[in-house]
Amino acid sequence: MTELTTNLQWNLHCDFSQPQGELYSQFMSALKDKVFLGTKIGEKSYFPVKQFCSTTYQEPEKVLESDGVGVVESFTIYNKKPSRVAFPGADLTVEAPYIVAAISVHNSSQSFFHFLSGVDIDNPLALLKSIKAGLEVRPVWAENRQGNILDILYFEPVSS
Amino acid sequence: MARRVGVIGVGNTPYTSAKRETRERSEIGRACIKNAIDFVGNGLTLSDIDAVYYTTVDGFEGTQRPDRTMDCLAKGTNAPVYFVNTGGTSGGSTIKDAYRAVASGLYDIVVVYGAGSLIATKNAQQILNSASPPLIESKSGIGAIHIGGFYLNKYKSDYGITDLDFATVAAKSHKHAKNNPFAHIRKGYTVDEVLASPMLVSPIRMLEVCPVSSGACSMILVSEEKAKELSETPVWIKAASSITNSFTTAYREFKGFEMLEVLANRIYEKAGIKNPLEEIDYAEVFNPFAGFELLEYEALGFCGKGEAPHILHDGITDLGGKLPVNLSGSTLCTNSGVAASLTRQAETCLQLMGKVEGGRQVENARLGLAHTWGGNMGQFDTLTLFERD
Fold first, then answer.
1. What percent of chain B lies above the pLDDT cut of 90?
2. Does the beta-carbon distance from B140 to A114 stay under 8 Å?
3. Does residue A35 sit within a domain?
4. Which residues of chain A are at the B interface, by a Cβ-Cβ cutoff of 8 Å?
5. Do the first three CATH levels of B5-123+213-235 and B130-210+238-387 match, i.e. the same topology?
């Protein structure tokens, strides 16, 4: 008897190009010059740039320039090498285990995610304690910067 | 004046690993909806259905608007089909929309169908992670599980929550899923086994993460008149609501589930609930990562901030406790995509109807709360309150 063919196999390969908008285009371009842009909206500042206040629709009063120094809000340690299949949009060069941190740059009202290095990855409890105390971190920049978020290789403690 | 809306039927299909699924998606839908109609009995047939509310998440099935492709959605009876999609909360959102359609008098009998959405994709993470905001988070390889890690590490940092607390709440789900014929992972893993499982993304271990399941869930919602005609055990929808957060995940401060707390207060006020721990008899909460259940106790006002481990270890949220939670094993043990967000409502209704199998029935449960969480990692929450007479 002929073997049953139980599954239909197919593949979708789709390419995308999404407009970033004016503010994010400025943000990405400034990364090439090692500048981390934010915006000031009312009393709050946002790093990276925020296009408008979600609560009031208010637009930014000005663009803020910074060196990208911030404080770690939370983190997680990823123990498995990230799969290119599982993260199709990502351009990953990191090796596992690695740390992803939520970082508030210059008291930003919203945090932002990036890799954290230069801390003891084998001691998460110590890391929790240092984060509770306000672990200050700075960006480490790539040599060849392309105008995207991976122009920052990772963040490291300012004290290191 | 809105009409009362009753839930009179629940349908499930057997749940299995998405990779082992052999049924075509419309076959699953037909079996699931038929199970709900048979659950009601009393002469109810497919042609009595006024409308079908269908929910799944785009992308996982490799086709646009999969509702088009499914002949099981009462298309032979000319009933209208509505498609609702709010990511991981789609089940809760669909119940809310269907409830309002019946309450308004638009329809008398509707089916809500939560499809399994993971049987076509070969790698669910590939689609799931594409839901991250593309400008920064996707580019850095930030996926669903990372966000879970952020919340739970922050929780540890703020309140001294331990890995044992997370493993204990995971083992509670595993223990009950073992006795749930409609759970996918039914191994009954113990606290020690959870703690011995590999750390995937700190502080989340392998046995604290939901599986990729296949299976579906359906419910039948009817007007009060039809409920009294067709059911001896109707469960009434007392309130249903939802809330929306920013798409940018990093906008969250990870200080607990703040939006859920706002939503809970909103729905409690509407329903006149002053002390949820004392007044609610059963709850199903969304726990794709086991530790989320503890954060949800706090956001839902079952206890104060940082106190969830106390009510867990005291057995208050276990079978026989004051407010049992997730006696189905919840999302941690069965996650077939969107169906998991409808199963929370369905399991709650089964508890109130007194029709739960496997020795998991809560005695005299009258008021039940069902929660879903999702979108882009906490972008949406829904809550539905059910009660029986």
1. 72
2. yes
3. yes
4. 6, 10, 12, 18, 20, 24, 48, 54, 73-80, 82-83, 85-92, 94, 100, 102, 110-115, 124, 128, 131-132, 148-150
5. yes
pLDDT in the model for residue A89: 60
Q: DSSP of B135-147, one letter per residue? A: IIIITTT--HHHH
Pick the CATH number of B5-123+213-235 from 3.40.47.10, 2.70.98.90, 3.40.50.10810, 3.40.50.1110: 3.40.47.10
**Superfamily holding B130-210+238-387:** Thiolase/Chalcone synthase (3.40.47.10)
B35: Cβ–Cβ under 8 A, 6 or more apart, which residues? B11, B12, B13, B218
CB-nearest to A110 from B130, B142, B251 is B251
Any chain A CB within 8 A of the CB of B39? no
Cβ atoms of A85 and A93 within 8 Å: the answer is no
**In this structure, is residue A14 part of a structural domain?**
no
A8 part of a folded domain:
no
Question: Which pLDDT value is given to residue A48?
Answer: 94
CB contact under 8 A, A112 and B198: no
Please identify among residues 193-222 of chain B the ones whose CB lies closer than 8 Å to any CB of chain A: 198-204
CB contacts, 8 Å: A142 with chain B:
none
Total domain count, chain A: 1
Element (H, E) at A78: strand A70-78
Give residue limits of the domains in chain B. 5-123+213-235, 130-210+238-387
pLDDT tens, B302-356? 999 999 999 999 999 999 999 999 999 999 999 988 778 899 999 999 999 999 9
Mean pLDDT of all residues in chain B? 92
DSSP notation for B236-251:
EEEEEEEEE--S-GGG
Tens digits of residue pLDDT in A141-150? 999 999 988 8
* Cα separation values, B352 from A115, B155, B269, B358, Å: 47, 32, 22, 15
